[in-house]
Amino acid sequence: MLLHPFRTVAFLSVLFLLSLTACSQQEHSGTATANTIKIGFLGALTGDVAMFGKPSLDGMMLAADEINARGGILGKKIQIIEADNRGDKQEGASVTQKLISRDHVIAIVGDPTTGITKVAAPIAQKNHVVLLSAGSTGPGVVESGDYIFRNTLLDSVAIPACIDYFANELKFRKVAVVTSDNNDYSVGLSHTFRSAAKSMGIEIIADENIKDGDKDFSGQITNIKSKNPDVIFFSGYYTEGALLMREARKQGVKAIMFGGDGLFAPEFTTLGGAATEGSMVALGFSPEQAAPETAAFVDAFKKRYAGQLPGLYAAQAYDGVKMLADAMTRANSSNPAVFKSTLAQTKNFHGVSGTVTIRANREPIKSPLSLLVIKNGAFMLKNKVPVKLD
């Protein structure tokens, strides 16, 4: 029977749309016949937190190139899909959705920050795409569901280890806490610090609040100065940290600053100058005293990026891609519904940023902890603290 011309066109249009839907669903499930496995990058390439995002992308690209040079995964090449979320939560949500719906990634590495990761995680969970954050350290990330992971040393592990070192080795007893109360990472880190300090008998003699974007900290430092702390614990990012220390030195406060990876950026010392000398940060990576696999990564990174030394975010994002590849290989599948289970079973993965074991709650335990100190305007390794792996 012949169809009416209009009905024929309509019928063919429906078939075309159905074929597109089928192809999209097939690619999203990781069973597509295409010769690539798409992994999305989630991070900022511009804006205030680009210092975290750009190195993460560099690490991911290096890992993908190395894997592809060895034949790829399951006979397929890795393709890193990048986009710029500009460090904005709303844009982070939009980028996450586009990576999944438009680009059909089977996994996402990022975001390096806690706030955007907490926005992206429910989207990835709903769409059954694995999200592995290689930077977020605050609470409330993996709780989104069984597709959400991270490989960074958690604040809940790093901060107690540091406080133990401060109390027993450096003999610090009095601390002033400063929190950026419009920053999820800062709020969570300060909460962790207060709890750990109390358990170690360290006294919190001042507890001040600021906001990201503030410029004048004279009031907070005046309050801190009157208490004479041994150390100022700041849980926020490098811009405000540098300005806080400039004001502290201006008012004659001699205490050093201690913080998490939010302070780990060259801009901390550039903005703060001599005021940041002696400041310390706790990280899950240091290129100093490197294990063989870390030394090889440092050499490869410097060769690819014109002599640039890799930092924490490059190393953890590199490890993130390698962990995903390892999970897919062990699962013999690039389907997120399948390889998420093998990723959850990762134990003693020897990454360039440390040895990682994923616990039952999909949170990592990682060793060692690197405590860095600023000397002559540069971050230097002060001590490596072992962390017991479960």
Summary of the model, kept short:
This protein has 390 residues and is α/β, with parallel strands linked by helices.
What percent of residues are in strands?
A: 15-25%
User: What is the alpha-carbon Rg in Å?
Assistant: 23 Å
The CATH homology group name of the largest domain: Response regulator
Note the overall shape.
globular
Distance between the termini: 70 Å
User: Considering DSSP H and I runs of 4 or more, what fraction of the residues is helical?
Assistant: 40-55%
Any low-confidence stretches, pLDDT <50, length ≥5? Answer: 1-33
**How many distinct helices?**
12
| SSE pattern | HEHEHEHEEHEHEHEHEHEHHHEEEEE
Number of strands: 15
Looking at the overall shape, the CATH architecture of the largest domain is: 3-Layer(aba) Sandwich
The name CATH uses for the topology of the largest domain is: Rossmann fold
**Structural class of the secondary structure composition?**
alpha/beta
Major beta sheet summary: 7 strands, mixed
**Name of the CATH first level of the largest domain:** Alpha Beta
Biggest β-sheet: strands ordered side by side in the sheet:
7-6-8-9-10-14-15
Could you explain the architecture of this structure?
With 390 residues, this protein is an alpha/beta fold. It folds into 2 domains: 36-153 and 289-358, Response regulator (Rossmann fold); 156-283 and 372-385, Rossmann fold (3-Layer(aba) Sandwich), CATH 3.40.50.2300. 44% of the residues lie in helices and 20% in strands. The protein is built from 12 helices and 15 strands. It has helices at residues 5-28, 50-69, 89-101, 114-126, 155-170, 184-199, 218-225, 238-250, 266-272, 292-304, 312-331, 336-344; strands at residues 36-42, 77-81, 107-110, 130-133, 148-150, 174-180, 203-210, 231-234, 256-259, 280-283, 349-351, 354-358, 364-367, 369-375, 378-385. The strands form 3 sheets. The chain has a 7-stranded mixed sheet, sandwiched between helices. Strands 2-1-3-4-5 form a 5-stranded parallel sheet, sandwiched between helices. Strand 14 (369-375) and strand 15 (378-385) form a beta hairpin. The radius of gyration is 23 Å and the shape is globular. Mean pLDDT is 89; it is low at 1-33.
